[in-house]
Design a protein that fits this description.
globular, Alpha-D-Glucose-1,6-Bisphosphate, Chain A, domain 4, 5-stranded antiparallel sheet, alpha+beta
Amino acid sequence: MSLHPHCYPRRLVVTHARAQAAFQEARARDVENGGVYDTRGAAIIIWSEPWSGPAQERVSDTVGTICLSWRTPDDAHATVTCLEVEAGWALAEVQRHLALLFGPPELTP
């Protein structure tokens, strides 16, 4: 069994505003403040539980990461490019967090 995360490629295009809102929501639910997210540039890292105390970081496991490409395919959009899933976790768990943060897929005419 691999100890490296498995990347499930995606091409989920969302508006830039929607991507910003998802990152804002993730920052509001930061792992160090009772949530399970840690935002980094173009990634939202998902943790198994909040870091409620100094040693909690060592107990909480990384579940996966939502990877994004800002301003892709153009300045008005962003694209979720990959869902990384850590060993021992299921893709469905990362997809659940994707839906919580980004909402249902946008319909385009």
